[in-house]
Specification:
It contains nine helices and seven strands. By secondary structure, the protein is an alpha/beta fold. Strands 3-2-1-4-5-6-7 form a seven-stranded parallel β-sheet, with helices on both faces. α1 crosses α8. The longest helix is centred in the middle third of the chain and has 30 residues. It is globular and about 45 Å long. It starts with 8 loop residues before the first strand and ends in an 8-residue tail after the last helix.
Length: 279
């Protein structure tokens, strides 16, 4: 299909890499004007804008977006509204695990929640009143399969993502009578730069994630960023016009077919082979 989002203004946070980047590209290919909400990697965000435009799409970049900075969020929303006067789609993909950042336990907790939960909350709460005034809009929130079906403990990250699912449900309840749909994506094992931070060696990383897939994923493969972007497009478009409040697992069957007792990461034969940072 083509032009499923023609004329829409779509703000994608976390668009500098991974699932957010793939979603921004996909939205651009489908006719949306994409506002790239990238983090500290300014070069990557600027290159994404060039790529969207090279493919015939339209994109904007208003500078680095740190979703843990409420003032930064408000500034971006103001710039979008000043130029376009509306926001039709918000896709919240900004998120990060801080397991290998050398933070203290308290710093780790605070930073994880500031980016993954509070940042998502503030983005939604800044955009939601705009959509209420429009009486139309779509919000897509990215959670994690691990929030309620963890394969290994990641307390802070999974707690924050679980809160995002609750936020999606509550926004969907309020927004439904107003023409606003809110849905949530729960990625499974998706091969993005998230894994680069946990396992630096590429061959080791691919081998390890493939082992997870063979043990846990019914489709027997790891997912790609495009697998997630395709579902984001479904939620953002009229293909899902009768869907709201849904938290959808996107993990090749992982999360709702296999039980935790079949987890590769918790099996006894895996513990001694886990890379540092994944144990």
């Amino acid at each position: 299909m083509k032009d499923m989002l023609k004329g829409k203004i779509a703000w994608v946070t976390g668009a500098s890499s991974g699932m957010g980047e793939a979603t921004a590209l996909t939205f651009g290919r489908e006719g949306a004007t994409v506002v790239v909400g990238g983090g500290r990697n300014v070069k990557a965000a600027e290159e994404l804008v060039r790529q969207i435009e090279a493919e015939g799409g339209s994109a904007r970049y208003y500078g680095a977006l740190d979703v843990s900075d409420y003032g930064n969020i408000k500034d971006h929303v103001k710039k979008i509204m000043d130029e376009f006067g509306r926001i039709d789609i918000l896709a919240c993909f900004a998120g990060k695990s801080f397991d290998n950042d050398g933070l203290s336990k308290e710093e780790h907790y605070e930073r994880t929640f500031a980016v993954n939960m509070t940042g998502t909350y503030h983005c939604c709460m800044e955009v939601f009143p705009i959509m209420k005034a429009q009486r139309a809009g779509n919000i897509i929130i990215c959670s994690s399969n691990g929030a309620f079906n963890p394969t290994t403990p990641a307390y802070e990250y999974h707690m924050a993502k679980g809160a995002c699912e609750s936020l999606a449900k509550n926004l969907a309840l309020e927004g439904a009578p107003l023409g606003i749909r809110v849905n949530c994506i729960k990625p499974g094992c998706i091969l993005t730069k998230f894994w680069n931070e946990l396992i630096e060696d590429e061959k080791e990383r691919i081998a390890f994630t493939n082992k997870i897939a063979m043990k846990e994923v019914p489709l027997k493969r790891v997912g790609t960023a495009q697998d997630i972007a395709n579902v984001a497009l479904f939620f953002a478009s009229e293909l899902s016009s009768y869907v709201t409040g849904l938290c959808m697992y996107v993990g090749g069957g992982q999360g709702y077919i296999y039980s935790s007792s079949q987890s590769f990461l918790l099996s006894e034969d895996a513990q001694d082979t886990l890379p540092v940072g994944v144990r």
